[in-house]
Write a structure and sequence with these properties.
Layout lengths: L12 H18 L3 H7 L4 H29 L1 H21 L3 H29 L5 H30 L2 H18 L25 H7 L1 H5 L1 H25 L4 H17 L1 H11 L2 H17 L6 H17 L3 H9 L5 H29 L2 H26 L12
Helix pairs in contact: 1-6, 1-7, 2-3, 3-4, 3-5, 3-16, 4-5, 4-7, 5-16, 6-7, 6-11, 6-12, 6-15, 10-11, 10-14, 10-16, 10-17, 11-14, 13-14, 13-17, 16-17
Length: about 400
């Protein structure tokens, strides 16, 4: 029997993490200027806000189709296709000066994000041994965040010379490079798409309905926790700038606070993944939500730059240590047969949380106050921590030896 070589994250770093860095960079380059582009094309402020949500809607509705595409064509080709599709979408936004075409392009970006996110998660679940999984997926999430962080700075340097379309040009280039690098991703060991199998020998993959029914308990327990985590994470994006405006801070100060919190967020993803691998998922999942909940509870009591910065840094730290947590849990519970379908449903629940969290924040704020909305988000964080604390150890299972592969 041939000895399986020791797995090394470094060995697959460029082909596996490179596409995620560039995909994040491409998205980051255009996210800050989507609303500005709508206004530049003659759209109203309300239409600009609606257009921004199309990315999330595109991702939400395409998670299940993404699982079908990944099952049919394989993870690597799904990643390549998502990069090309997203580049085409950004080219439409850049070259067709019409609001309807722009809306189509923005929606396509969300579609590409769904396919890319599912395929990369499925790839790493297969390629990385269980005892490295959390570190790999935490690094994957961290690399994507680094790209999202860098992208706006590159587009900001290009816009003075090329205008708003220049940002979409940056995105196109980054995404084409992402697709090219993804072509160099190693084939999965025993990949069903890399090996010719006769129709008689290949069992039919389970349907989405069968995967849903067979794993209903997971979706209704740990899946609810993942939904709540996503709701808190999405809401935090609005909390800091809204409260900064509430206490009278200017835009430059707000941006600085937001950026510093994002920097803390990016520094802690690998150590958190290492803890998850060595101690267990709950050692990071629960503290992440508790820290975020405490920081959100404290935020309405801040009244100046220093105190808000401290609360924002704590919020960034809590979010950062949870980097890759949702992907890791999805990978842990996903079955070998029907994995893409399971992850598509898992990501659908996560995206429901990402959509619903800001809606809850907005609704409570409209009915009561911004402070009440922030405190409600803190309660969601504590609820998420409680659900994960209770259900992860009661549903966790060691994956079969057949899934402990080298990449």
């Amino acid at each position: 029997m041939t000895e399986v070589p020791e797995f090394s994250l470094r060995r697959i770093a460029v082909p596996a993490f490179g596409p995620s860095l560039l995909f994040g960079l491409g998205e980051g380059a255009i996210l800050p200027i989507v609303a500005l582009s709508v206004r530049d094309l003659g759209g109203s402020v309300a239409l600009a806000a609606l257009m921004v949500t199309l990315i999330g809607i595109g991702s939400l509705v395409c998670n299940i189709p993404a699982s079908i595409l990944t099952t049919r064509y394989g993870e690597r080709w799904a990643i390549v296709g998502a990069g090309v599709w997203c580049a085409i979408a950004m080219a439409i936004c850049m070259l067709v000066p019409h609001l309807a075409a722009f809306a189509v392009g923005v929606f396509m970006i969300g579609m590409a994000g769904a396919v890319f996110g599912l395929a990369r998660q499925s790839y790493f679940t297969e390629a990385v041994p269980f005892h490295y999984r959390a570190r790999a997926l935490s690094t994957l999430g961290g690399v994507m965040r680094i790209g999202l962080f860098i992208g706006p700075f590159i587009s900001a340097a290009v816009i003075p010379f090329a205008g708003l379309p220049g940002a979409y040009g940056v995105g196109c280039v980054a995404l084409i490079l992402s697709a090219i690098i993804a072509l160099r991703m190693p084939e999965l060991p025993g990949d069903r798409h890399a090996t010719v199998i006769t129709a008689e020998a290949a069992p039919p993959p389970p349907t989405i309905r069968a995967v849903t029914a067979g794993h209903a308990k997971i979706f209704l327990t740990v899946g609810i926790g993942a939904l709540l985590v996503s709701a808190v994470r999405a809401s935090r994006q609005a909390v800091v700038p809204l409260w900064a405006e509430q206490i009278g801070l200017d835009a430059a100060t707000t941006s600085l606070i937001y950026g510093l919190a994002g920097g803390i967020d990016m520094l802690v993803f690998y150590p958190a993944g290492k803890v998850m691998d060595r101690k267990g998922r709950n050692w990071v999942a629960v503290p992440s939500m508790i820290v975020m909940g405490v920081s959100l509870l404290a935020m309405p009591f801040t009244h100046g730059t220093k105190t808000l910065l401290l609360a924002a840094l704590l919020l960034g730290f809590g979010n950062g240590i949870g980097s890759g947590m949702i992907m890791t849990l999805g990978a842990d519970y996903s079955p070998s047969a029907g994995r893409a379908h399971f992850l598509g449903l898992w990501r659908f629940m996560s995206d429901l949380g990402s959509t619903g969290g800001p809606a809850v924040l907005a609704g409570v704020t409209a009915l009561f106050s911004l402070a009440s909305g922030i405190w409600c988000t803190a309660l969601l964080a504590f609820a998420a921590g409680g659900v994960l604390w209770y259900w992860i150890p009661r549903t966790a299972k060691r994956p079969r030896d057949s899934s402990l592969r080298s990449g």
